[in-house]
Amino acid sequence: MNNRVGIVVPTLGERPDYLEQCLRSIRAAGQAHILLVAPTSLNASPLQSAGLIDSVVIDEGGGLPSAINQGISLLPASIEYVNWLGDDDLLSPDSLKECVKVLDSKNDVVMAFGACEYIDTSGRLVWKNNSGKWTVPLLRFGPDLIPQPGALFRRSTFNSVGQLKTTLGWAFDFDLFLSLSKVGKLHYLNQTLAQFRWHPESLSVEHRKNSVAEASAVRVSHLPTFLRAVSVIWECPVRQATLVAGKRLTAKAQSKARSS
């Protein structure tokens, strides 16, 4: 039977232990075609021999959102539902199965998502994002609290909204969620679907100020024209609150590391 789910894993191959954990977690999450986007320097043959990936494509070097777009476009034609997963993140057991159930049963839903645990470099729990379904209306005026790992969206809708914007360096998932929410429903599942590894090398952590500023620009760009001029009223406190929350999470992760 052809797979209906495709997961793209972009990687530089610099964290082989994390990468193997990531791929094994996808296999445990449900039936899926796993496509690795990697540089020519990575020998993916052992991963294919171990059954951890189904295909590999060479990264064209256009940046992370470009690599993800490339991977999704090269998935088999049978794939209906897609997402990507960072090579240091994990999916929860059966999480893909649960998302597929929702997408199969609700034609007006374009994306399913759930809770996400934030873990440190050793896999210890730091915090749990269990924001709930109210995160969807919050997207337009507040921070993006939808966890991208563990989500699953329709490939056809992803293509219809223009895929990921390659001009964005950090908030391309936020921009996608806003675009998807304009054409269909984003459905929240009250269960943990993934684990996001919070460490200094994480893209969103290392460049926190830039990512928060870019998210703000993305949020404003999706507002009606008449609201953009006054958006500064809430954008400044939202940016500040997001930065403070990130610093607290980093401090908590560092504290756990020191106490271990």
Describe this structure in words.
- With 260 residues, this protein is α/β, with parallel strands linked by helices.
- It has one domain (5-259): Spore Coat Polysaccharide Biosynthesis Protein SpsA, Chain A.
- It is built from eleven helices and nine strands.
- The chain is globular.
Précis, in short:
The protein has helices spanning 16-29, 45-49, 64-73, 95-105, 135-138, 155-160, 172-181, 203-206, 208-221, 225-228, 232-259; strands at residues 5-10, 33-38, 55-58, 81-84, 90-91, 109-119, 125-129, 152-154, 185-197. The chain is of the alpha/beta class.
Compile the SSE list and pairings.
Elements: E1 5-10, H1 16-29, E2 33-38, H2 45-49, E3 55-58, H3 64-73, E4 81-84, E5 90-91, H4 95-105, E6 109-119, E7 125-129, H5 135-138, E8 152-154, H6 155-160, H7 172-181, E9 185-197, H8 203-206, H9 208-221, H10 225-228, H11 232-259
Parallel strand pairs: 1-2, 1-4, 2-3, 6-9
Antiparallel strand pairs: 4-8, 5-9, 6-7, 6-8
Helix pairs in contact: 9-11
Brief descriptors of the model:
single chain; 260 residues; Spore Coat Polysaccharide Biosynthesis Protein SpsA, Chain A; nine-stranded mixed beta sheet; 11 helices; 42% helix
State the CATH class. Answer: Alpha Beta
- Biggest sheet statistics: 9 strands, mixed
Distance between the termini: 46 Å
> What is the C-alpha radius of gyration, as a whole number of Å?
18 Å
The total beta strand count reads 9
Helix and strand pattern:
EHEHEHEEHEEHEHHEHHHH
Provide the CATH topology: Spore Coat Polysaccharide Biosynthesis Protein SpsA, Chain A
| Percent of sequence in beta strands | 15-25%
Residue runs with pLDDT of under 50 for 5 or more positions: none
Helix/sheet category: alpha/beta
